[in-house]
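Aim 2 progress. For DUF1330 domain-containing protein, the working sequence is reproduced below.
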Amino acid sequence: MPAYWMARARVDNPEQYKKYADQVPAILERFGGKVLARGGKFQIMEGPDAFKRFVIIEFPTFEDGVACFESDAYQAAAAHRRGGGGVVEVVMLDGM
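Predicted structure tokens for this construct:
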């Protein structure tokens, strides 16, 4: 059953954030991740508008998505954005 990595982000330092973003596609691919939506047009229908970037990634299973997030490679890449590049919230959701 597929699972979905849903993230919302705020980029505070584009140069620093790019160091993270450049590494992520190859990491996702290793875990079977497929980007369904990233950036682009959006409209906040309800809730705070603290985030301006939204991402949805499909994984073959919930476990694959969690393994990707917890992997050494992803955590090393995420250190770039956590070091001042921006703020991200990530939720893994089991599909139906």
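The chain has one domain: 3-94. This observation will guide construct design in the next reporting period.
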